[in-house]
Specification:
Helix content: 40-55%
CATH superfamily of the largest domain: GAF domain
Radius of gyration: 20 Å
Structural class: alpha+beta
Order of helices and strands: HEHHEEHHEEHEHHHEEEH
């Protein structure tokens, strides 16, 4: 959980990880490009790159650095800790087919949502301009808000202190008091609603996924473009399927 790091941290390691993150997010970067993004000397950045190359976390093609396939393999090993097998994928596929909407399973880790598996019908994504991402904030996503409603207030405050409440659309809640009011309502109904809070023209509902001990490990969401389905219709038609899918995934843990 956020805020539990109390020991000494290494600046050099943080810099290497920052370089790795930037190379991944930008789909490859040159040394000159990294020099304008990382707060270190060019010679120091070069040393970090050489270390990551030697460790096989990066590859170099021409003058451009890319994340190596070894990183993919490490990520695949991490998947074994979470409910991401074929059974879970089958549940998400079925949820998308039953609702005719986009359905997603995300993992909750370090105060963020990480995309694990998502699927949709053609109808659910037609005309949607929302760019795919791998990480999401909690405060403006349906699964994220549902997860926050499950946590103690101190835990929520720690997450907000660390990640903030960035505005990603005009409807994003950026005030803590308003967010906590929304979380109180979510806690009583068991699912959360997002009405263009993540992106314009996108609505969704989400619910938390618990492990066998009752801890929150992730969330399930379903939704689509607002011109295809309004919030009222989404709740009326999809909440039961959403909660059934969530319960089925929990039974697999």
């Amino acid at each position: 959980m956020i805020g539990n790091v109390t020991g000494r941290r290494l600046k050099t390691t943080e810099t290497s990880l920052e370089i790795l993150r930037l190379v991944l997010e930008r789909d490859g970067l040159t040394l000159d490009e990294l020099d304008g993004l990382v707060d270190s000397s060019k010679s120091s950045i070069c040393s970090h790159l050489n270390t990551l190359l030697d460790g096989r976390y990066l590859v170099k093609e021409g003058g451009t650095y890319h994340v190596s396939f070894r990183v993919v393999l490490l990520g695949e090993r991490a998947r074994y800790r979470y409910p991401t097998g074929e059974d879970v994928r089958a549940v998400i596929d079925r949820l998308a087919n039953e609702t005719g909407r986009e359905a997603n399973f995300t993992v909750f880790e370090h105060g963020r949502l990480l995309a694990c598996y998502g699927t949709s019908t053609d109808e659910a994504t037609d005309g949607s301009n929302v760019q795919y991402r791998s990480e999401y904030h909690l405060h403006n996503t349906a699964a994220g808000k549902a997860i926050l409603a499950e946590l103690d207030r101190d835990e929520v405050e720690a997450i907000l202190d660390h990640w903030g409440l960035p505005r990603e659309s005009e409807a994003t809640i950026t005030d803590r008091d308003r967010l906590f009011e929304a979380l109180d309502e979510i806690g009583s109904q068991g699912y959360a609603v997002v009405d263009e809070e993540f992106a314009p023209n996108l609505v969704s509902i989400g619910a938390p996924v618990h492990d066998a001990d009752g801890g929150v490990v992730g969330g399930v969401s379903v939704g689509g473009p607002k011109y295809q389905v309004g919030v009222t219709q989404l709740e009326r038609e999809c909440v039961a399927d959403l909660l059934d899918a969530t319960e089925e995934i929990e039974s697999l843990l």
